[in-house]
Amino acid sequence: MKQRLLDALNNCPADYAEIRFETTDNTGFAYRGKELDNASTGQFTGGIVRACKNGGWGSCVFDTLDELKSKVADACAAATTVGKEKTALAEIAVPADQVFTAQLKNDFRGVSLDEKVALVGKYNDIVLNAVPGVESSTVMYGENFRTVHFASTRGNYFMEERPRILLYLVAIARNGSQVQRGSESFSSATDFTVVLNREDKAREVAERAVALLKAPQCPGGRHHVILRPDFTGVFAHEAFGHLSEADFLYENPQMRELMTIGRQMGNNDLNIIDDGSLGQLIGTHHVDDEGTPTQKTMLIANGVLAGHLHSLETAGKMGAKPTGNARAIGRGRPPIVRMTNTYVDAGTLSKDELFAGVDDGIYACGMQGGQTMMEMFTFSAAYGYRIKNGQVTDLLRDIVLTGNVFETLHNIDGIANDLTMFELGGGCGKGGQSPLPVTFGGPHIRLRDAVIGGQQ
C-alpha cells in the first residue's frame, strides 16, 4: 500500500499533496422500546486526495484505488485554480514509514452478533422494567474498526488501526406533559468488556429518569456550583477547547486577540490540557490525519494561556508548531483542527474539602446538552443536587449553567485532586464531521457566583 500511494504522488505539480485511504468495518444496532429497531453491518472503503498550490486547496474523493494517479492530478488542478497566495504549511520531521496496529485487550470482533444482540436486549429489558414509570428506552450498541493509510509528497507514510466500541443506555419517563430521561454511555478503543456487566447501570438510568419526575426544578440565580468531573470535562471541551482550535482563531481576529498566548485565564492551580498521545483512549492516536505525531499540549498552564491546537496549515500561517490535531471523521473527509483527549488537570484539594467550602449551592452532574456562541455558553446538566452545609442533599432537575467562559474560568476557586477521564458514546461535532471520538475529563471543580437559570 505504501508504494502504491507514493507512486501516485510522484511528479505531483502541487506544493504539497497527500492521500488518505481507509477501510472501515461497522456493526450497529439499537432497541427502541421493546423492539429491535435496526441492525446493520458492513465494510466501507474510500479515501481523499488533497493538494495545495499557491495557498489554495483542491481535493478529490474516491472509493477505490483504481486510477489513483488521475485522482491526484484532479486535486492538483483544482488547487492550481483557486491558489492565489504563498503556500504556508509547517514543516515536521517524521519517520518515512510508520505502522501502528491496534493493541486490543478483548477483541470485539471475536464475539458473535447474536451474543451482542442478546446482551443489549437484556439491558433493554432492565431499563424498561426496573421501576414503574419508564415509558420507553433507547439501548444502542456500535463498533467500528478503522484502518487508515496515509502518504504525502514529503515522503512520509503511516498505517494506523483505530478501533472503537460503544454502548448507550437511555430511559424515558413521563408524567403527564413532563418528560425526563436518564442516560449513561460507555466506550473503549481496546476492550470489549467495557460493555459487559452493565446491569446496575441499566437499572440506575431507569430509576433516575423516574426520580427526576418528582425532583424540584433548580432555583435560578447566582450560586456556588460544584461540577462533577464529567461536567468539568465537557465544560473544558465545549466552552474552552473549541476556542483553542487555531482554524477558528485564524478566521476570527476578535477571538484571536482574546486568546493571546500569555493572557491570565484563572488562578495558578488551573491547568487545561489536550493530549492525543495519552494512553489508549478513544481520542488517542499515534499520528493525526496529516501524519503529525500527537502530543501533550498545554492550553492553560498555571492559570496562563499557553497554547493553541494546530494543523500544518494553521501552524504555518500563525508561526507555530503543529500539535497533531488535524483529524477527519473518516474516508472522504478533509482533516480539520479537532481536540483529542481534553481535560482539566488535578488540583490539590480533596473532594471533601471542596464541598466543605459550600454552605448553600448546587452540585451539577453529567451533561444533557448546550450551546456556545464565541465566548458565551449555556449548558444543561443531566441532573444535580442541592448542597447544604457541605453535604449533598436533594435531587434537582433543570440545571442550566450559563455565562462567559473567561469570567467563569476566573471564578474557579477550588480544584480537587480526583481527576477522572471519561470515554463515552457519541463524540464531537464540527464542520459537518460528527461524531469524532474524543475523551474529556477533570476533577471536581468549584465555581463561585455562577449563573444558573431556573425558577427564582
Helix-and-strand structural type:
alpha+beta
Count of runs of 4 or more consecutive helical residues: 10
The number of domains is 2
Give the biggest beta sheet.
Answer: 9 strands, mixed
Describe the global form: globular
Distance between the termini: 64 Å
Radius of gyration: 23 Å
Tell how many strands the DSSP assignment holds: 26
Oligomer: single chain
Strand portion: 35-45%
Helix content: 10-25%
Indicate the low-confidence ranges by residue numbers. Answer: none
Overall pLDDT metric? 96
Summarize the structure.
This protein is an alpha+beta fold and 456 residues long.
Describe this structure in words.
The chain is α+β, with helices and mostly antiparallel strands. The chain has two domains: 2-214, PmbA/TldD superfamily (PmbA/TldD fold), CATH 3.30.2290; 221-453, no CATH class. Helices cover 21% and strands 40% of the residues. Strands 8, 15, 16, 17, 18, 19, 20, 21 and 26 form a nine-stranded mixed sheet that branches. It is globular.
